[in-house]
């Protein structure tokens, strides 16, 4: 079909003049890294019930590996999404959700650096088996910031997915339905 690249409607016109293959790969990278980061944040959220015991037992090693991997995936997602913002900047239908996803990811990273890293640094400085007197306050800050990070990255993932769907099929409307009539078929997926 005319205008299709590798069976997909991702064209230079649909991406604002940029190469379709590059845009597809950047969306794939951004989606993967956003999903991994959201997954790591969700793991923190799921561990809330046992966080007090974890802090008491392992304050020096808590989240060292988890934090390193999380930071790498978070920064990677931001870099991939920033590249996408640049690549699709001329196409408003793709640029708006992509730029919003980028902003949400930057907010998540900023909150992580401002609120979680100081807690981790403070707890790592303690001798094993000891907890600071304000552990409940620190734990709440740590927990709620990870919860917010999960929500921000989950929404960013959804926005990137919306943009990718729009890029793949430019005929999709805002609600995900094709703009043309369904020719008597009531199934919107056909």
Shape: elongated
| SSE order, one letter for each helix or strand | HHHHH
> How far apart lie the N and C ends?
18 Å
Give the structural class: mainly alpha
Counted beta strands: 0
Q: Radius of gyration, Cα only, in angstroms? A: 21 Å
As a percent range, the share of strand residues is under 5%
| Tally of alpha and pi helices | 5
The low-confidence parts are 1-9, 181-190
Secondary-structure map:
Elements: H1 20-46, H2 51-57, H3 64-87, H4 92-124, H5 135-168
Helix pairs in contact: 1-3, 1-5, 3-4, 4-5
Description:
The protein is mostly helical and 190 residues long. The chain is 66% helix and 0% strand. The chain has helices at residues 20-46, 51-57, 64-87, 92-124, 135-168. α1 (20-46) packs antiparallel against α3 (64-87).
Concise summary:
The chain has 190 residues and is mostly helical. The chain is built from five helices and no strands.
Task: From the structure above, extract its key features.
mainly alpha, single chain, 5 helices, 190 residues
């Amino acid at each position: 079909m005319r205008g299709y690249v590798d069976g997909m409607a991702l064209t230079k016109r649909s991406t604002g003049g940029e190469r379709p293959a590059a845009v597809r790969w950047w969306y794939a990278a951004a989606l993967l890294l956003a999903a991994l980061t959201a997954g790591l944040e969700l793991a923190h959220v799921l561990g809330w019930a046992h966080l007090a015991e974890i802090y008491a037992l392992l304050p020096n090693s808590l989240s060292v590996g988890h934090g390193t991997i999380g930071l790498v995936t978070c920064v990677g997602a931001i870099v991939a999404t920033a590249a996408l913002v640049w690549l699709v900047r001329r196409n408003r239908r793709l640029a708006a959700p992509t730029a919003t996803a980028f902003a949400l990811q930057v907010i998540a990273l900023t909150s992580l650096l401002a609120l979680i890293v100081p807690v981790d640094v403070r707890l790592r400085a303690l001798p094993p088996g000891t907890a600071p007197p304000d552990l409940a306050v620190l734990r709440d800050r740590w927990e709620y910031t990870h919860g917010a990070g999960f929500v921000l990255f989950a929404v960013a993932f959804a926005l990137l997915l919306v943009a990718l769907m729009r890029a793949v099929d430019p005929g999709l409307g805002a609600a995900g339905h094709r703009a043309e009539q369904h020719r008597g078929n009531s199934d919107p997926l056909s």
